[in-house]
Structures are given as C-alpha cells and as structure tokens.
Amino acid sequence: MTSAAIDRLDTFPKLLLHNAERWPDEPAMREKEFGIWNVYTWRDYREQVRRIALGLADLGIRRGEVVALLGRNRPNWVWSELAAHALGCMTLGIYEDVLAAEAGYLIGYAEAAAIVCEDEEQVDKVLSIGRAAHSLRAIVYHDDRGMRKYTDPRLVSWRELLERGGELAARAPGRFEDEVARGRGEDVAILCTTSGTTANPKLAMLQHEPFLRHIRAYLEVDPRGPEDEYVCILPLPWIMEQVYVVAMPLLSRIRANFPESAETAMRDLREIGPTHLLLAPRVWEQTAADLRARIMDAGPLTRALFDWAVRTGTEAVERGGRARLADLLVFGALKDRLGFSRVRSAATGGAALGPDTFKFFLAMGVPLRQLYGQTELAGAYTLQRDDELDTDSSGVPFPDTEIRIEDPDENGVGEIVTRHPGMFKGYFRNEQATRETLTEDGWMRTGDAGYLDAKGRLVVIDRVKDIARTTAGVRFSPQFIENKLKFSPYIGEAVVLGNRRPWIAAILCIRYSMVSKWAESRQIGFTSYQNLAANPEVLGLLGEEVEKVNASLPESQRIRRFVVLYKELDPDDGEVTRTRKVRRGVIDERYAAIIEAIYAERARVRVDTVVRFEDGREGRIQAELEIRDTRAHQRLARAA
Asked: Where residue 53 sits, what CATH number does that domain have?
C-alpha cells in the first residue's frame, strides 16, 4: 500500500472499510469450529465489526474510553478490537491465562469501560476482582454455557450485543461510517502490556497511523499478499500477534486462520499449510524436541536415517547449500507432517533460539529468521537477511529504523537505543516511566545490552540491569548462559545465579517431553515430573549438558554447581512472565533456601512447600534435592 493511501486510510477501521468495499467476497480470515473451517470474507468482517461497534455504542461506550479483551484467539476478538477502534476507543488485550488479580490490576489501572470475555471462566475472573472492576459498565460474554446463574446487571450476551447493534443501525443508518470517519491517525488505538519482569506491566500507547507506517516498513523487508496464509497461535495480546493478525491483514490482505483450540493448533496448522509463520523460540524448540522424541520411539533404521539427514542437512546449510537427497528421503515428509511445506517466511523472536535448533529447521528447508523488537516500538524492527546463515544476531534494522549503542564498553557492548516513526506515544498514565524511557530527541532506551557487528547486524546480549558481577569481579550475562543451557533438548528452563556471589551456579528445569522419552528408552521408572527430575541418572544427563555449555564459556564464567527443580517455572506463580521471561526477584525470594544451600556447599537441601495446580487446587511438595558439582567446581575445590 502506498504512502498516500496510508495518509488517507490512517486508522484500522478505515482500512477495513476500504478492503470490504474493494474485495467484499475475498476471504479475510478462517476459524475452525467443531472440526469445520468457517470462512469470513472482508464483507463479513466489516458487518461483524459494524454490529459490535454499534452494540457497544448502544451500551453507552464512548470515544476515548478503554475496551478490554479477555479470551482465546478467535475472530470475535479481532472484530471486537476493530469495533472499539471504530468508536474511537482504546483496546487493552489481557492474556487468557492470567490470574484474577492480574486481570483486576489491568482493568482497574486502565479504568476500562467495557470488557469482552470469551466464556464463563473469564467472566468469573472479572466478577471476582470486586472494586477493581468499578469502572466496568458492560461485561460482554461470547459463550453462553454456564451463564444462566449470573445476575450481575452489567452482563451482556453476545447475541444481545449484536441485536443492539442491529437495532441501532436501523435507527441511525450511517452511524458506523460516521464514527469511523471521525477517527484520526494520531488517535491511540492499542494499550499493549509490557512484559513486566520486575513489576506490574506498563501500558504502551500505540497510535493508528504510526503503527501502520511501521508495519509498511516491515512488509518492505518481508512481503506478503492476499495469496498468503498465517495461523494465529501466539496470544493475541502480544505485540507481534497484533502485528501479524490485526495490522498486516489490513495492509496486505494476508489471511489469518484461527485454530479450534490450543491443543489442536499444530494439527490445524497442518490443514492450512501457512506461507508465513511466527512462533516463539520455546515453540520451535518444543517442536524439534517432539520430533526427536518420536524418532526415539522408531526403529534403528529410521533413527539412523534421521540422524544422517540432520547431519548432512546441517553441513549443507553451513556451506550455504541444500542436501537434496536428505530433502527427498526425510525432510520433505517431515515438513509435510508439520504443515511447513508451503512456508516462505518463518520468524522467531523474544529470546534466543539455540543454534542447533535453528540449523535443524534450516536444514529441513524452513526459511527461519530471527527478529528483535519491543512492545513500545510496534514489535519487530530488525530481521535477519534470508541470504546468509546467521545464528548469532537479530539481523539488520528495517528501512525506517535507526539504532545506536549508548555508553559502549571496550567490546562495543552498550545499551541498545532505537527510534523509528512508528514507536509508541508513551506509557498510559505513567509520565515518569515515559520520561525515563524516551530521550529528549525521541529515542527509546530499550534496556537491552548489545552491539552492532561489522555487517551492521544487531547482537543482543541481555537486559542491562541483569548484567551481573561476582564478588571476584567477573562480569557475566545470566541470560546469555541461560540461553546456552536451554539450547539443550533436555533443559526446559534455566536460571543462572552468581550476582554478588563468589561464583556462578544454576537452577534447572527438565524438558519433560524429552527427558521422559530418554528415561523410557533406558527403562528408568518414574511416576511424575518431580520423581523424574530427582532421578540420579537424569541428574547425570543434565550434568553432562551443563559440562557442554561450560566448555564453550570462559573459565571465570563457568557454572560451578547446579540443582534440578521439582517443578516447572510457572507464570501463575509469578516466576516467569506470560511470555516466559524470568522474574529474577521472585526466584531469589521463593527459592532463597535452595540458593543458600548451593553457596553453603551443601550436597542436599530439604524442600517443603505448597504449589498451585492449573485447576486452582493447592498441593504440598516435600522433597530432598541433590545439589551437584560440575568439573569446574571440583577443580576449584582441589585448588583451594
């Protein structure tokens, strides 16, 4: 779309009306429900948004107010978002799996006037937060099941909302188009939550026209069009899914597809055969781990063929070529099984992806690239080139983006500072945080440490505040070492310790899908995650993985001791964010006894704690964890 067109079509709803007028019968999105893919054209998209917008207007929702969205990835989420924008409202997406207290904070802080919920579970969260929901005048729910017992006067069913919208459309023809026309490109469209690793998330204010201009720059380096398909798997509140599912389809008409459920997402992806993919590093790693786990169940000939294909495919990628025989015998079938046969562009971002996993998918023929960005900067603004093997950097900046490194050290590493025309306006109701983040000349301090290499590619190291120093004066990046550990197929999560401590240690979590298969293949009995994680042979397996990482690190930065945790790190417990970033303060506090035992040189530590299960129940865990020394620590002890 040309710059002149964006000047005229400067809001999301204006683009929707433009597309519906020019391509009314062209498919805009699909949703799988009860095993059937339902197709919605651009005309359907517009009519749904029209009725929802007018329904909200009939409920008294007015320009400048906030409409919250809480539920799973579905077309009705996107329709509701565009409907709120059509009325001149700001939208606030809330992650589906948040606890009631988290939802309550966001709703109360934003003083949302209305919220669109998916079902009874989400309505329960909203109703349970009490005074935090005082601003809500309407609680819309999409799924009727289980809702008859509720009596809150603010509750509005989806059917009633659409009926209200239809009635207002009959009374006031042209009202919807008038509301859309009143919108301006400088209006704030989206309040997007930041990751919130150290405190409650902030709300970045993203405006219509700047956001759209930046996505146009994105499309210059990674084009897509109406013949392309995308499957919406990542949470819609995340900035990159706002880019891929809300903005990009309006600009390029790429079709967004919504799986039936999270459990069927990868199977539904195979049915669509997307041309573009965006998956979080953990999804790529889990996909590779699941493949390897299935291969472990196969016969010796299949395992040998797979290992040969991976080896020769990786070697070919490193030479800049393709292993055609491996493609023919192995990778073609694998890509087809995964639904990756038609993929022309695949991306990952948010954290580092292990080089072995990266090369594995490249060897398979998946054109995977790393990107980098922030919520405040409208998502991604760097992307790797597709003509070179690059497992270290996050690529080069988009055409509209400038990057500089502030206060670099002797190695050129400093804080990454960025600006482009599509960046956020500031933090909602938080001028102090805005002043701390934005410079006077309009650059944003990302808080990340990194450097630009000789080719102008951005290499990200860690959060600036997380760069640590031992009492011996050794500077190190916990995230850098954690990412190396998580490159192992057997390590699902890692927390590296050592800041203001004499040496570096680690808390590890097993990748259950892989470790359980490994244990079964060796006839090692286990009954649960906790039981498996404590098995001496499993500890030995993870110990060898730690040794591999240590071999790649300077001696002063090697892990001396480690412990394998009895559970996975859980966002519901506040240990990681919804996007799986470690909350170090929570870890330091919650596992203080384990950390003290590590540095007190104890061989074991007793744990007696309460954990919360997904269904809300609580259980007590009593365990004795073994703390293991690495060879680096053993050498240190002998020298001492």
From this structure: 3.40.50.12780
